[in-house]
Design a protein that fits this description.
- By secondary structure, the chain is α+β, with helices and mostly antiparallel strands.
- The chain has helices spanning about 75-85, 110-125, 130-140, 145-150, 185-195, 205-215, 225-235, 235-250, 270-285, 295-305, and strands spanning about 10-25, 35-55, 60-65, 90-100, 155-160, 160-165, 175-180, 255-260, 265-270, 290-295.
- Helix 1 packs across helix 3 (about 130-140).
- The longest helix has 16 residues, at about 110-125.
- The radius of gyration is 19 Å and the shape is globular.
- The structure holds cytidine-5'-monophosphate.
- Cytidine-5'-monophosphate binds near residues 33 and 143.
Length: about 300
């Protein structure tokens, strides 16, 4: 007989991401898009508490945010159910989510929550799969979920779910501006497909990574192919994005872009002073601006090792 599972709750951080760059390379037979993207973890995080429940109990969730589902459609619940079936676990779990990452903002909050639940329950249920063993479940839950099993500065290929940590980890101060208009990722991809102008495949990520390896990082090379379609999807967002971008660039941002399909706009700064100036100017202009820092692969691993008690 194995040791009984612990009923002690596990408290976990669930970090947000931004896409430093995103290239859409084409459509795939499965209806998704072939991507090349540079993911980056930042230290803005939701908090997740996993409360183990005994054999026969259900998987349940509680979250105070009005836009987060509190039933089986919540990606964190789906992650727990998928792992439970995969590991033939009979125990249940109650998941509490304290939201700090804006919802529907292109910051990967739901995907991050799902990855955190996989990692936490892997330990609570003593499955011993680790990030590598969880990858197959993560990619079925969503294209961004596998990234959160790795963290730091990561190259994402295929649907964005084939992930490779990069040797050059980006370190920067980040200003996030919640444009306050959640955008549907699927709708943005659809709009991009309807665009009749043929687009040449860009190679900005290749250029960025090559130069970075030579010790000459240049964030200004990076672009987001979804930005035009996302801004066309929501005209109010377009007008706000232009104002936000101007403020970020004037304050010295090395990169100012939409994260994923939006609607969060971000600026990357090498100096804390620039980030502070940008935040003050944005708040004075009536925007909600959050300050954050990038989190490297090593930092991410350390936080996770601590949280999982390893
Ligand atoms: O995988 P996830 O559910 O996060 O993706 C949300 C939507 O974004 C998908 O339903 C799909 O329409 C679109 N998508 C895509 N190609 C990708 C990733 C996402 O078309 N590589």
């Amino acid at each position: 007989m194995g040791r009984p599972m612990s009923l002690r709750p596990l408290r976990l951080p669930s970090f947000a991401k931004i896409n430093l760059g995103l290239e859409v390379l084409g459509t795939r037979a499965d209806g998704y898009h072939e991507l090349r993207t540079l993911f980056q973890t930042i230290d803005l995080a939701d908090e997740i508490v996993l409360r183990p429940r005994p054999k026969g109990a259900d998987v349940t969730v509680a979250c105070g945010h009005p836009l987060v589902p509190q039933d089986g459609t919540n990606l964190a619940v789906r992650a727990a159910e998928a792992l439970r079936a995969f590991g033939r676990v009979e125990a249940g779990v109650h998941i509490e989510i304290q939201k700090r990452i804006p919802v529907g903002g292109g910051l990967g909050g739901g995907s991050s929550n799902a990855a955190a639940v996989l990692r936490g329950l892997d330990v609570l249920w003593r499955l011993g799969l680790g990030p590598e063993g969880l990858h197959v479940l993560a990619r079925k839950l969503g294209a961004d979920v596998p990234f959160f099993l790795v963290g730091g500065t990561v190259l994402g290929l295929a649907r964005g779910d084939e992930v490779y940590a990069l040797p050059g980890q980006v370190r920067a101060h980040v200003v996030l501006v919640d444009a306050g208009l959640p955008v549907s990722t699927a709708a943005v991809f659809r709009r991009l497909d309807q665009c009749l102008t043929p687009r040449g495949n860009s190679n900005s990520i290749f250029c960025f990574v090559s130069r970075d390896l030579e010790g000459k990082p240049d964030l200004r090379l990076l672009t987001n192919d979804l930005e035009g379609a996302a801004l066309d999807e929501a005209p109010v967002l377009k007008e706000r994005a232009e104002r936000i971008r101007d403020v970020l660039v004037q304050a010295g941002a090395e990169l100012a872009a939409l994260s994923g399909s939006g609607s969060t706009y971000f600026g990357l700064f090498s100096e804390a002073g620039g980030a502070r100036r940008a935040r003050s100017a944005l708040v004075a202009g009536g925007f909600t601006a959050i300050g954050a820092r990038t989190l490297s692969l090593d930092q991410y691993r350390r936080v996770w090792a601590r949280s999982l008690g390893r």
